[in-house]
Amino acid sequence: MTSLIKQWNEAIANNYGAPPLGLVSGAGSTVVDEEGKSYIDMLAGIAVNSLGYGHPAVVQAVSQQVAKLAHVSNLFASDPVVEVAQKLKARVGDSDARVFFCNSGTEANEAAFKVARLTGKKRVLAAHHGFHGRTMGALAMTGQPGKRAPFEPLPAGVEFYPYGDIEYLRTLVEQDPANTAAIILEPIQGETGVIPAPDGFLVKVRQLCDEYELLLIVDEVQTGVGRTGDFFAFQSARILPDVITMAKGLGAGLPIGATIVRGAAKDLLTPGSHGTTFGGNPVVCAAANAVLDTIDAAFIAEVRNKGERLAERVAALPGVVEVRGRGLMLGVVLERPVAKQVVSAGFKHGVIVNAPNDSVVRLTPPLVIEEAELDAAVNRFALALSDATVS
């Protein structure tokens, strides 16, 4: 039988490169490759599989919904999409908020970009090294020149500020406040290496937006849905954004994105101004409902506890400088730039991790991972780290 990897390379566009593994099944926090080898998954589809693999609540919800009503488009209403929207409004804490559903994080940020433009102002301020997606509008707000350069010219009007530098950001706003629509940021920059915003930064940005009547857009695509030990990462700062974008963990493996608008932003999207055929799909929203019903306050408290234990154990390993992040979104900073070698060695030892850059390993396991699995994953990670350091 031809391997999955060989078939992939013959059929799939080369934008991802050759995959290292061909995966065929999963249960809980474990996946199995085509040769029958098991791995503890400490990546979870890049923070997507919030409830792991085969969670009974998701399986039941999706199975029941697909047998009843799979797709209706947004020309018609359906129960699951309304239920998810109401639950998200409750999690935000604003009964007047409104939700736009799409299929991914980049689409959620595209919608946020369009909401900013609908203010009539053209300037959007985004952070250096931030990541908001790969479609053209989201890419325009992504502060990584290497990703933007091949596709320029991108939509105009985006200017960049150093992440965490409130004085620079204030100076940038004051250069043209009348034409500035919004400030966008991630509470923790994930794709750059899990870099949290400095203490107090989100509060000061909220105050700056209030002072100049700007929209604050917070990208919770990777940090949301309990990942950091709060349902939304911004909640630890006790602020409320005007626009919240989310995706990844909301669908527990199924493709969903959401843009939540509130306050002055909630009335900017009007009939015909934006849309999507598949956004708010009933089957995907059934999965999201299962996720939201499962990830309650007690569940999130467990995420905090597991994250603290994981960070403490990993920080004690040889070759680790520090562990940053919150909850089960951690960046392991290494003494040497061997993160990619650690990833490769991890496959040998039965653990899946990720390297956003040469000196950082990212850990974003399923939120349902058990303590014993975390301990086993740390032991396997230690072996991978030792292999990479010695080689």
Automatic annotation (TrEMBL):
Record: residues binding pyridoxal 5'-phosphate: G105, T106, F131, D219, E220, V221, Q222, T277
Subcellular location: Cytoplasm
Residues bearing PTM N6-(pyridoxal phosphate)lysine: K248
Gene3D superfamilies xref list: Aspartate Aminotransferase, domain 1, Type I PLP-dependent aspartate aminotransferase-like (Major domain)
Reaction catalyzed: N(2)-acetyl-L-ornithine + 2-oxoglutarate = N-acetyl-L-glutamate 5-semialdehyde + L-glutamate
Residue stretches in coiled coil: none
Positions of transmembrane segments: none
Alphabetical GO biological process terms: L-arginine biosynthetic process
Enzyme class (EC, first level): transferase
EC numbers, comma separated: 2.6.1.11
SUPFAM superfamilies: PLP-dependent transferases (SSF53383)
Binding site for N(2)-acetyl-L-ornithine: R134, T276
Note on cofactor: Binds 1 pyridoxal phosphate per subunit.
Keywords: Amino-acid biosynthesis, Aminotransferase, Arginine biosynthesis, Cytoplasm, Pyridoxal phosphate, Transferase
Cofactor: pyridoxal 5'-phosphate
GO molecular function term, any single one: N2-acetyl-L-ornithine:2-oxoglutarate 5-aminotransferase activity
Source domain of life: Bacteria
Keyword Amino-acid biosynthesis (UniProt): yes
Pathways per UniProt: Amino-acid biosynthesis; L-arginine biosynthesis; N(2)-acetyl-L-ornithine from L-glutamate: step 4/4
HAMAP family according to UniProt: ArgD_aminotrans_3
Other known facts: May also have succinyldiaminopimelate aminotransferase activity, thus carrying out the corresponding step in lysine biosynthesis.
PANTHER family referenced in this protein's UniProt entry, alphabetically: ACETYLORNITHINE AMINOTRANSFERASE, MITOCHONDRIAL, AMINOTRANSFERASE CLASS III
Subunit structure comment from the entry: Homodimer.
Family statement: Belongs to the class-III pyridoxal-phosphate-dependent aminotransferase family. ArgD subfamily.
Name the record gives this protein: Acetylornithine aminotransferase
Species for this entry: Corynebacterium striatum
